[in-house]
Specification:
Length: 367
């Protein structure tokens, strides 16, 4: 009779968080090799029956079960995209990341990927971009690395592979953007925007709402009586409800926007919902002589202006929808004026401390 192991199970049968598995040694090609055969989360009685069926061959060191089919990268990528489309707001970005990954890893078994192979992929991505006269930013490459890791991680969760083969791949260091508009630049930007597009820029500049939240804004989300925009969890990137305050200026702005018959959206163009405004925004920046500025930087402007106005971090985060202080700090730009103002406050503090009596004492000692 076989001797029970530390888990109280028969010899050669073990269990972990993934269920039962057979654990034994075989003679393969004249070499003694350890084998593990996953049985999964099945009843212990069934696991013991499977062990009993193969005990004779296992003890003889001859039981070699057929290996399960290897999962391809393409199969795992398709599974991830199905998950992304149904559960994530960033499906469009995931789609293009997978497209780039598939061009290199397509056709390979997923478990054959290695950190070195990923480095080869990154070199190839940079090389192809240079051939087209472009340069890939670290942030773009990081999105693709993160996507690859998620594909492998979900394959592990689905028990298609036993381990994540790219778990040790490191991300590139990113440099956070630090660009906001001066009041003069903001005015020039508005002046050079198309009339239908000006309210979009103003709402982004004053509230810090994301581009998709603005272009997809519906009238049923706007409450002019309460002076708020109420976003539901399905409307936000973080999938959490958020309330955006509206002051008199923004409420007046929204009241002047005509409603389009048959359209639920606040912002429309020629009878259709406003699509990606990237081209219109870049054209306005070019006409206004505003360089190195992206639409998303308007979110930086809003957060920085809130902070300069003395609004608490927690209040700003509740408006902007930032979930962590680490990400929030990337949007709060500390500029030259902030540093000068810090020195002024220290000088003012010292001046108030230096009373006439203290000053006379310092002069008397030659200090």
């Amino acid at each position: 009779m076989s001797k029970p192991n530390v888990h109280g199970l028969p010899q050669h049968l073990r269990k972990d968080h993934m269920g039962y598995f057979l654990d034994y040694f075989v003679i393969d090609g004249g070499l003694r090799k350890r084998k593990r055969v996953r049985l999964g989360l099945i009843p212990v009685a069934q696991a013991k029956r499977i062990l009993a069926e193969h005990t004779k061959d296992i003890v003889a060191g001859e039981f070699l079960p057929g290996d399960k089919p290897k999962v391809s990268f393409d199969e795992a990528a398709d599974s991830f995209l199905a998950f992304s489309e149904s559960r994530k707001k960033s499906y469009r970005r995931d789609f293009f990341s997978v497209k780039a990954l598939r061009a290199f890893f397509g056709g390979r078994p997923l478990e054959s990927l290695t950190p070195s192979l990923v480095e080869d992929f990154l070199k190839e991505r940079k090389k192809k971009a240079e051939e087209k006269g472009r340069s890939l930013k670290n942030s773009s490459l990081n999105r693709e690395i993160a996507c690859l890791k998620t594909i492998a991680r979900r394959a592990v969760l689905d028990r298609k592979i036993d381990r994540n083969p790219v778990d040790g791949v490191r991300m590139f260091r990113e440099t956070s953007r630090n660009r906001t508009l001066s009041p003069e630049e903001y005015q020039r930007l508005l002046e050079n925007c198309s009339p239908h597009y000006q309210p979009v820029v103003q709402l982004a500049y004053f509230t810090g709402m994301r581009r998709g939240e603005i272009t997809g804004l519906r009238w049923d989300q706007v409450d002019l009586k309460e002076g708020i925009i109420a976003l539901k969890s399905e409307d936000t990137k973080t999938q959490e409800e958020r309330e955006i305050p509206l002051d008199e200026g923004l409420m007046d702005l929204l009241k002047r926007i005509p409603k389009v018959l048959g359209s639920p959206y606040v912002f429309n163009f020629r009878g259709h919902g406003l699509k990606d405004p990237k081209t219109a925004f870049l054209r306005a920046c070019e006409r206004g002589n505003i360089s190195d500025f992206h639409f998303h930087d308007l979110r930086h402007c809003a957060v920085t202006n809130f902070r300069k106005a003395g609004v608490s971090d927690s209040t700003i985060m509740s408006i902007s929808g930032h979930k962590t202080h680490a990400v929030f700090r990337k949007y709060d730009r500390i500029d030259r004026d902030d540093r000068k103002e810090a020195l002024k406050r220290v000088r003012l503090l010292n001046d108030t401390r230096m009373t006439p009596a203290v000053l006379l004492s310092a002069q008397g000692t030659g200090g």
